[in-house]
Amino acid sequence: MASTMLNMTFLLFTSQACCQSLRFTCFLLSSFSFSVQAKSKKTLARPGMKNIVLVEGVRTPFLMSGTTYADLMPHDLARAALLGLLHKTDLPRDAVDYIIYGTVIQEVKTSNIAREAALGAGFSDKIPAHTVTMACISSNQAMTSAAGLIAAGQCDAVVAGGVEFMSDVPIRHSRKMRKTMLSLNKAKTLGQRLSLIGSIRMAHLAPELPAVAEFSTAETMGHSADRLAAAFGVSRVEQDEFALRSHTLAKKAQDAGLLQDIVSFNVPGRDIVSKDNGIRPTSMEQMGKLKAAFVKPHGTVTAANSSFLTDGASAVLIMSEEKAVAMGFKPKAYLRDFVYVSQDPKDQLLLGPTYSTPKVLERAGLSLNDIDVFEFHEAFAGQIMANLKAMDSDWFGQTYMGRKSKVGTPPMEKFNLWGGSLSLGHPFGATGCRLVTTVAHRLQKEGGQYGLVAACAAGGQGHAMVIEAYPQ
To answer: For the Thiolase N-terminal domain, which residue ranges apply (predicted)?
Structure first.
């Protein structure tokens, strides 16, 4: 009943406050020569607190699942990212104090993938490593865990990263079959074994695929995105326009050589991969031909305006500024304030950026106008636009967030200018590092001082972080 009332309230809000359509076609003409003039702003450094810096960030090319990486294992991708980081920084393999990796769908043979990838990359076996999971913000959690270790004085240099491998996800036998097989393993007599084998039925042989639905709601994220778009009055055309914008800007960034975080990967037995392969600018006409992917037949979320299943890995080197400078590194950015948020996983599953953005700005003592670079995770075009409409609504801010007025929306001329997850790809556990590294590179390129990363995640969770440019 509560869910139904909230949906009805959202729909009422749609008619009252979302009648104007956000259009993005004009942004397709955005030029990468756009430059934010460096402003004289305060630094977010605080007395008595260590400055924590991003020294370098890399990632493997993000590839559509089932393509060139198909015969690998997840730790192969993670190892490639770690080796790319070592090569790019000339970091001694024993100079790291700790390694943390994020992942979502774990390969059971390498459950602590941080450790296996680190050993495979040649890091000292004396370096501890652990793996975290927090859905689409798993590598965000890896990075902030690294920052916490440094802030606490436990470490001076931590490698954080993330990996996801959707080409070969673990598929289990049914629960009944698993129980029978475990019992067979314990059976002591031939009669016991034959009895157990005789109890197997055809239904027991049905496999269990990894869940793509929320455990608490039994609803897929695509269904949630479709309902959220409907609640906020986000049209199919708006979603397709935003997705086209993402692919077009990603293609421009790729062609201009701006995706500098990518490290080439010599895939064993295959080709050397050096580019993302999901960037595919098309036309509104072609996108309009696709049918609804989740809510059929009248839904607005399609394969073209959703992020695709992706294989990929990322890695970043995070250090105390003091240690980085002592080792001769020139950091890219400061990692400043961050927050995690959590909301109703049924009706507000994907609204993490709306809730996390004002909280992290308040912690940093900044306003939306102070931010020069925005990088939001694009799970679905409908999700992004629903967040933008929620952030632009006094009614939503007052009713659901306890605010006096709306959060405000990021200017599109500062927003995801090098493409996003819709076009670059979204390996669940690896995207957070890509977002942060992209902010650091854009701040350098555009002359800005502050950047903001925000993302939603399964379970109704979200994350935001403020990044400050390192003086050039």
So the answer is: 52-322
CB 16 within 8 A of CB 9: no
The residues annotated as belonging to the active site are: 136, 456
In three-state secondary structure terms, 157 is strand
Would the pLDDT of 10 be above 50?
no
Please indicate, yes or no, whether residues 321 and 190 belong to a single structural domain of this protein: no
Angle between helices 221-231 and 2-17 (to 10 degrees): 50
For the segment 90-110, what is each residue's pLDDT rounded down to a tens digit? Answer: 999 999 999 999 999 999 999
Please count the residues of the chain: 472
How far apart (Å, rounded) are the C-alpha atoms in residues 64 and 165? Answer: 10
* Mean local confidence (pLDDT), 301-318: 98
Amino acid letter, residue 128 = P
d(CA 452, CA 429): 19
Residue 303: the pLDDT is: 97
Average pLDDT score over residue span 323-338: 98
Instruction: Give the helix, strand, coil percentages of the chain, each rounded to 5.
Output: 40, 20, 40
Q: Do the Cβ atoms of 347 and 324 come closer than 8 Å?
A: no
pTM assigned to the model: 0.90
Domain limits at 80?
A: 52-169+217-469
Among candidate residues 248, 315, 274, 259, the one with its CA nearest the CA of residue 442: 259
29 DSSP assignment:
G
- 79 shares its domain with 184: no
